[in-house]
Design goal:
By secondary structure, this protein is an alpha/beta fold. The protein is built from twelve helices and ten strands. It folds into two domains: about 140 residues, ATPase, nucleotide binding domain (Nucleotidyltransferase, domain 5, 2-Layer Sandwich), CATH 3.30.420.40; about 140 residues, Nucleotidyltransferase, domain 5 (2-Layer Sandwich), CATH 3.30.420.40. It has a five-stranded mixed sheet, sandwiched between helices. Helix 4 packs across helix 12, helix 5 packs antiparallel against helix 9 and helix 9 runs parallel beside helix 10. Bound molecules: 5'-O-[(R)-(carboxyoxy)(hydroxy)phosphoryl]adenosine and zinc ion (ZN).
Length: about 350
């Protein structure tokens, strides 16, 4: 490797509906994103109201090589300067995972590079490392995405312990389903939070399942059902009104965020965590970010959250996770759609 460069990892991500590649360099004790390319398939899946796995896999297949080529050419980096390849090997959609994994294995074999299989959920947490702040441990991480809602005790840089999780729907899934009920589009999270900013969060009192339960688990299906019953009671004509939709969005978001914040802070106190962090697609939610920040300030502890583009799926987080993951030989890499932390 040329002395010009530090340790450079190529990250590859195809677990769901984003085809992504990134180059992250570690130099002088700091992570630096050289290039971060995300090709989102949202426009393709929008018309179905959710992700169609086979369509996602076919599109990954078409896009993965162009996305990797673009990443290398934008960084003006020759493959010889890459020290390792990091690729998501789970959890996720099996057919989507296979495309990224097979591509990474082929490149590792042809380029003669070591490879690491990356847990997508850990990578979401590692997105917080990209800010180069010194993270104090133990930390409690609220990991909230379209498929997962978990509370993780982060004991050290590479030591994670799940202490709670959703017993039914993930928080992001609830945002997506409520948006579907309101017929306002996909993915629901960003659309709901935008509409919510114009609505009254006290207009409807939706259920807050398990908010006071004596554990660190969550449940979002009751909240979703409570929104559904409210919508069913309102006439179709009335449901077309913008302000009514905005009020439902604001009230739903308020309930979901209250539960998430309540349980996270409960976990912080119970584990005597020194810091708190957010990660995953739902961490892009402004109300959630603000409310956790306020609670952290009250507790006088540090709060970390990735910048918006690094909350949702990307490969920079996969690359940074690669710095902490053991290297294997290409033919040992296996995908696991149900991989756990
Ligand atoms: O982490 P991610 O990009 O993909 C998964 O690994 O699941 O998360 C996607 C989820 C979707 O459910 C989307 O609706 C949600 O994150 N999301 C949001 C916001 N932006 C994205 N949820 C609430 N508020 C947002 N601003
Ligand atoms: Zn994700």
């Amino acid at each position: 490797m040329s002395k010009k460069y530090g340790n450079i990892i190529l990250g590859i991500e195809t677990s769901c509906d984003e085809t992504a590649a990134a180059l992250v360099e570690y130099k002088g004790g700091k992570f630096n994103i050289l290039v971060n390319v995300v090709f989102s398939q949202i426009d393709i899946h929008k018309k179905y109201g959710g992700i169609v796995p086979e369509v996602a896999a076919r599109n990954h297949l078409m896009d993965i090589i162009p996305v990797i080529s673009q990443t290398l050419s934008e960084a003006k980096i020759n493959f010889k300067n890459i020290s390792k390849i990091a690729v998501t090997n789970g959890p996720g959609l099996i057919t989507s995972l296979i495309v990224g994994a097979q591509t990474a294995k082929t490149l590792a074999y042809v380029w003669q590079k070591p490879i690491s299989g990356i847990n997508h959920l850990k990578a979401h947490m590692y997105a917080n490392w990209l800010s180069n702040k010194k993270i104090k441990f133990p930390s409690i991480c609220l990991l909230v995405s379209g498929g997962h809602t978990e509370l993780i005790l982060v004991k050290a840089e590479n030591k994670f312990k799940k202490i709670g999780q959703t017993l039914d729907d993930a928080a992001g899934e609830a945002f997506d389903k409520v948006a579907q009920m309101l017929e306002i589009g996909y993915p629901g999270g960003p659309i709901i939070s935008e509409l919510a900013s114009k609505g009254n969060p006290l207009a409807f009192k939706f259920a807050r399942p398990m908010i006071n339960s004596n554990d660190f688990n969550f449940s979002f299906s009751g909240l979703k059902t409570s929104v559904l019953y409210t919508i069913k009671k309102i006439s179709k004509q009335k449901m077309k009104k913008y302000q009514l939709k905005a009020d439902i969005c604001a009230s739903f978001q308020q309930a979901a965020v209250e539960v998430l914040v309540n349980k996270t802070i409960k976990a912080v106190k119970a584990t005597k965590a020194r810091t708190v962090m957010l990660s995953g697609g739902v961490a892009a939610n402004e109300l959630l970010r603000q409310n956790i920040k306020k609670e952290a300030e009250l507790l006088k502890i540090d709060f970390y959250v990735p910048p918006l583009p690094l909350c949702t799926d990307n490969a920079a987080m996969i690359a940074v996770a690669g710095f902490f993951e053991k290297e294997i030989v290409w033919n040992k890499l296996k995908v696991d759609p149900n991989l756990e932390i």
